[in-house]
Amino acid sequence: MVPYPDLMGFWAVCISWSALFLTTVSIYLYIDSRKNRKQDTQATTKLRFVKDFVFVWVLLGLLGLYIVSINRGSSILFASGNLVVEALLIVYTVKNRPPKALGTDEGDSYSPQLK
Amino acid sequence: MICLSVILGFYNEYKAEKTVQALRQSVSLKAVVTRDGKPSEIDAKLVVPGDVVTVYVGDVVSADMRIVLCRELQINESVLTGESFPVEKTLDALNLQQPTPQQLTNYLFMGTVVQHGSGRGVVISTGGHTEFGSISTSLAESRPETEFQRGVRKYGTMLITLTLALVIGIFVLNTVVGHPIIGSLLFSLAVAVGLVPELMPAIVTISLSQGARVMAKKKVVVKRLVSIEDFGNMDALCTDKTGTLTSGKIVLKDYSSLSEVRESRILQYALLCNSAVTGEKITGNLMDVAIWEYAIANSVQEEIKSYAFVDEVPFDYQRRMMSTVVRKDDDLTLITKGAPESVLSRCKYAELTEKIEAIDSVQKLTDAKLTEYSGAGYRSLAIAYRKIDAKTSYSAEDESNLTLLGFLIFTDSPKEDAQQAVAELTRMGVDVKILTGDNELVAVKICEELKIPVKRVIRGSDLTQMSSNEIRTAVEETTIFARITPEQKLDIIKSLRANGHVVGFMGDGVNDAPALHEADVGISVDSAVDVSKGAADIVLLEKDLSVLADGIEEGRKIFGNTIKYILMGTSSNFGNMFSAAAASIFLPFLPMLPMQILFMNLLYDVSNMTLPSDNVDEEYTKWPRRWDIGFVRKFTLFFGPFSSLYDFLTYGIMLFIFGASASVFQSGWFVESFWTEVLVIFVIRTRRIPFIRSRPGKWLTVLTLSAVAFGTILPFTILGRFLGFTSLPVNYWALLILMVATYLLLVDAGKVFFYKICKF
After folding, report:
1. Do the chains contact at A110 and B622, CB–CB below 8 Å?
2. Is the pTM for the entire model greater than 0.90?
3. What is the pLDDT of residues B152-209, one digit of tens each?
4. Which residues of B700-709 are buried (b: 16+ CB within 10 A; e: fewer)?
5. pLDDT tens track for B611-648
């Protein structure tokens, strides 16, 4: 039995809410950028929903891991899960940078914005 | 922090203002006034309308006056009109509707300089009522809000809205769930303080001061600190021509015979027929001085030593030429130099390569040459000669049956480094436009020499026919604005700003002052008049224009570091405070005491103190950036929840794994919150892979890691106990390290996604 059992439900809602909020914001920004890209015919950057959203899938996976491990009060599950996710994120981060990452990711081309 | 910001800002602006004041005091004007029939020299400030003022060569005109006596007066009006070549004045009445200063040839204008001759005028207006003064008066109007100030204001509005909503929400919800009112109020206020980036003024001021110091080493005085950021963000630079891109000085560009040969006698004869006074310093007619300077620079002045001076027929405005008679061996030669049309009318022959032709047979050739010179924006003088018999004196009547030898071509040439400076500005995404009172031919020629592509040329007279909407469209596609008035310069700057550009203006004359005042960044040069320096934000003390690019880069670095602080602070504070608010509702105790929140906030700010010295990635300085509140909002909405998520995770660990009491919970969350808030700096400060492809500044790294170390040991210290912290379970530290590492990696992965879809 975990301590503070009466708070578990509220806590699970809070952490899920923040993860879902982040997912929603990501989807909103993604759709918004696609809309802007349609107006800007010069932009040729391809965004792949599955690949580009890797961090969201990882996030949702982490959410599951965190809720399960904490619900069970298991530090071991928590720690090992984190280590696996960290390894995945490192691979993702290194693979998703341009070879000479000058920060000029494909979508970062300069376009003067007039107000 | 606020006091520190104010003191630093005041100190820097005071020092810069002092420098300009010292420059201003170095100039004190006098005027020769005839009162009650007696001429006397008085302080120019004491001249009143109705006074009769006499002017001589070298005088700065002390008031606007109608000329009543004119002895070959030539006035340098470049301070008012931007035109380098002196203007000839007359007594003649003019019949003009709404004349511009350039057209009023029977007027003398305050601030202009007598280049040749002398004259007398009746003062019509003085001080603020003069052309010069009306420009100065317009400078008294308050400065328009710059792009940087507008951005800060919008950011402040966004922050106040966000803070008010969150604070009111927290207070109401806490009260509703039954928490004590005073405790809820204090907690809400602490959250509000936590949300406000109170160090921002200090960060901005320190950044700007450091930038100003770097600029000062390059002999650039930054008079208004905030202008440095706009300097960096500037995407359109309007510049006056004379004295900024050009040296503002007439130089002999070349000389040529009719057969395109650089006949050395042309230069020798120009030296022999010359009114300039040579000594330690060469003085006199600007064109004669230019001939001597050219000869000295090319070491050809010795070539005339074999000639002996015999007589001179001085220049006058009817003939528009001068002549000298010189002797070489036993031969006497009369050399004439003057306005081409005047000299040509006295020529009977023209010298081509080794042959003499009748002048009529080469008329097409001479016409073509003169058209070519004026079309290229050059001024020219003709040189002619004849053999002459010895006699006691010579007169203008001897200037006949001359043989045309060739032409001298004069120009106000670009500064040596101007081409490189313009190319550098273009590379940095700054569009260069020329705004000049001079004619379009000269401006086009300068653009050619500086390799500025000319998209379109508009004259002042064309601008007067345009509506404000047409001007707004025209300014986008025009490179040269010629023959324009100070008011039109102002309109162009306003139109560019209205189109959303961050506009810089570089000028040195009085006519440039209103535009300097209106622009986001007003830049003046060393040789500028005081009014222009006074209106400018930045004064280049040396003629080197390459400092412009340095200044822009410095501005972009400062803007980059300011934006870093805003993005990091807003997003992590928003996330932390949001999770604090949520926890305060469902927890039986406060997730962190108000004093603990404030202390964490202070510690976080201290760790950010060295942010102004942080390295800025090279790509960030390549293009002008812009305050984009929409981007800040998106950034906050995206990165804030990362912080909240890990705060909630900490709550879970503390409550459900460690069964923490209030003080253990608060200590655990303090450490986690502080670690994530501070360490995320290294991830967010760059778009590259942190540390591997973008190294943070040395001092930022040292101070940030020191702050993390201090925050870590704080719960074990007396101060920690005083703040209500307690020791944490050993296992918690292991989980914390893993959790924070995952958080930083997740934010980095999120960063890749975010910058792929959000431009800034």
Report:
1. yes
2. no
3. 888 888 888 888 888 898 889 888 888 888 888 888 888 888 777 777 777 778 888 8
4. bbebbeebbe
5. 888 999 988 888 898 888 888 889 989 999 999 999 99
The span from the CA of A46 to the CA of B584, in Å, is: 43
Domain B253-410: give its CATH superfamily: Calcium-transporting ATPase, cytoplasmic domain N (3.40.1110.10)
pLDDT digits over B71-84, tens only?
888 888 877 776 66
pLDDT per position as a tens digit, B267-296: 999 999 998 888 778 887 888 999 999 999
Tell me the fold of B147-216+551-757. Answer: Calcium-transporting ATPase, transmembrane domain (1.20.1110)
**DSSP state string for A11-67:** HHHHHHHHHHHHHHHHHHHHHHHHHHHHH-TT------HHHHTHHHHHHHHHHHHHH
- In angstroms, the separation between the Cα of residue A114 and the nearest Cα of chain B is 5
pLDDT of residue B587: 85
Residue B722: both structure tokens together: 């005083």
**Tokens standing for residue B433:** 């436009």
Contact B586 A14 (CB under 8 A): yes
Of B573, B607, B577, the residue nearest B203 (C-alpha): B607
Catalytic residue flag (residue B240): yes
Report, as an integer, the average pLDDT of B657-679: 93
Q: Which CATH superfamily, name and number, covers B217-246+416-550? A: HAD superfamily/HAD-like (3.40.50.1000)
Q: How many CB atoms are closer than 10 A to CB B228?
A: 31
Candidate list B59, B64, B240, B398, residue with the active-site label: B240
Determine contact, residues B103/B81, Cβ cutoff 8 Å.
no
CA B217 – CA B384 distance, rounded (Å): 52
